[in-house]
Amino acid sequence: MTKRSELRRYPDRGSHDASTIHAILDAGFLAHVGFAVNGQPFVIPTLYGRCGDKLYMHGSAASRMLRELERGAPACVAVTIIDGLVLARSAFHHSMNYRSVVAFGTARKIQETERILDALRVISEHMIAGRWADVRGPSEKELKATMVLEFSIEEASTKIRKGPPIDEEEDYALPFWAGIVPISLSAGKPEADPKMRARNDVPTYIRDYEARLKSNRS
Amino acid sequence: MTKRSELRRYPDRGSHDASTIHAILDAGFLAHVGFAVNGQPFVIPTLYGRCGDKLYMHGSAASRMLRELERGAPACVAVTIIDGLVLARSAFHHSMNYRSVVAFGTARKIQETERILDALRVISEHMIAGRWADVRGPSEKELKATMVLEFSIEEASTKIRKGPPIDEEEDYALPFWAGIVPISLSAGKPEADPKMRARNDVPTYIRDYEARLKSNRS
Q: Using the beta-carbon criterion (under 8 Å), do B9 and A64 form an inter-chain contact?
């Protein structure tokens, strides 16, 4: 652990514990990846998958982000899950309930076809478990157009806030409504592609997706 | 518009149109802010409010992010709204439906108390409209402990993907289920702080919050 992942603000909300880091990374699926080019920072949203302390990301071989990262530039990956609004009696103590990871490390491009396929499977299964076995896999041409990066987490920290608002002692007598409004991602009814020729039923793993989102709630 | 906000990948999904940028910023409420310190990128999640081409952010006067940004360091602010999983017949054409903004600019610290209060109100009303009039406002001591930044958007781009998967022509005959699974944020039932003394009803603007989230869906 170095200065860059030191928990300065609200250290009581923070941790460097690997199992907490992994649990948040597994509950989320959208990362915001930061890198700098000549001092100019970029932040790009991307999907990911996790295996141990590695995150896998993919995209076009022409992507600016991936081409910068594969050079080994220092990167920062943030994953944030919103759990609720925290409505205190004072404006000052308003907050969010959330779980977040900020991870530092570097990425490298995966070269071997077998490992590329493994990583793509990890990303796909992280997005929606069960899908990888139920699609046409990548062709040679598609693999050539795809860059897959392995981001090694060198250090990371988490922050978690949960529970009701914490107000100043004298403010508890104020008449304002206080509490939390839970917020979470939820899935709507799957919408079949109008161009689908076979009238397939929605597969179980897709119908189960809403339950997966629910299980990721705090 | 310069190289940094050039739309290289899927330019047909992208835009530099101000009204599109503003609509996405108004529909989201969580930003990921990127900045670099000696080449090391940081990405920090934060709430924000918008007024014109300015974003307002606040936090502790001791926050690393705010102290770096107030020096005028180049920053990148990303706001991403997930609208759904896009399940294609081929692994390669899987995607997400989403709306995102990547904005570049610099921030400055707001010094004048009146403008600080205005900015805090904008952030609060962006989080949940109606709340600012229903709380104890910031004390002098609280204002001293709070730093408020005005981030001026110098250039920005949006990306939007919507609609069903787009597959290779020959893949439409494959038997896999294809379509989208809509995803959105939703609010649960407000949970009163157990320490609330008056048995207040949940105010209308809090009961309306779920409707606000719904109205932000694509």
A: yes
